[in-house]
Structures
1.
Amino acid sequence: MEWLVRGKAHVLGDDVPHDGGVIAFEMVTARITDPEKIMPQLFAQIDPELIQRIQPGDIIVGGKNFLAGKAHNTGLIAMKYLNLTILCESMGVRAFQGVVATAIPCLTQCYGITQQVNNGDELEVNYLTGKVLNLSQNTSMSFSGMDQGVKNMIEKEGLKGLLIEYLAQHPELRTPLTPQES
């Protein structure tokens, strides 16, 4: 896991919902989990051409209440697949749980970030220290770095990785594999 990330900023603003914003609600209700199928629809409800401008490793910059609404992870699956990271002013606890569970590096409480970063700015972000360099504007910002517990969970590839590790340490809790699974 790289904690020092360099990529283009895609500024989305305040109150961006997951359902109907990051991803179409129809994708959520259809329970699609294949990132290849989700990816073409990522952010289409906000900007239909945004997905063409996004490159793997880019940085999503959200304002207040990023990923508002229901805590679904459909869009996060595609964001993880594209190796995107997040900087935002605020995010609800359920949304943050989804981000960490899918192992997406994220800094919240980046107050004023949407006023200091423009679409397409080249950023360098140290998620451990909270230092953000705007290489396009030759400016720097400092925010709180990532919590150690969150870092550990993301390093283990989120909730699934933690569960795999836990079950390896506690084999008595594992469900025996059926003949088809072995």
Note: The domain at 4-173 is CATH 3.20.19.10 (Aconitase; domain 4).
2.
Amino acid sequence: MSFQPGEPDFTIDAGIVESLSADIDATLEELAEAAMAAADAVEAWGKRELRADTRAPLGDKVANAWRSRVWPNKGGQASVTPSIGWWSNAPHIVRAFADGETMRAGTGKYLLIPTENAPQAGYGFGQSGRMRKSRSYALVQAEKRFGKLRYVKVKGRDLILMVADKVQKNKRGYAPASKTTLRRGREENGVVMFVLVPSATMPKSVNPDRIADAIGREGVERFARAFREIATRRFGADD
């Protein structure tokens, strides 16, 4: 350091500047890689939690409709501040069972609600979160398999049952009774395939908001832990 007139007060060796710059760049790169790894872990953890919360009450199809993604994309440049997103490809269904929504008939007087006895084939979820096949399709499939269903009015209630007669149960569900079953008189009658009601209130059986809070806490912990490990290794910091 010099205090002579016309001379700089102090000088820094260019080599030191380059070394510091390289060290900072390396640290930022390591932080970015750690942040991306933490984001990937939180993304996978969050999706597992959302699917687990949904699977028991709504089944595998709705549970597996949960999707997630990390930005920037894998293979791109790492970022110290990655973003993570989770969404469902069946949002209307998830929201109905999260809020306990009341569903009402749209074009007709009654909602057609399939029971576990009705044929389940032909269902899938589109980008809107609605079933690709309407429930009338399920009715068509049922009557194609069992014949014309019988309507049973429940006395004292605005409720109608659609039942199948002369059926038998096997490992895959109900099927038309075989000739042998009919000859032995072992067929079942009045098996409920559908329930017709004016409206239905969905039970509050999923809680994605609770999972979102848990994801937030998990994310903060994972990011903090990753950055703390880098700081300790590079700078000997404990806090």
Note: The helical segments are 14-58, 60-63, 91-99, 135-146, 179-184, 208-235.
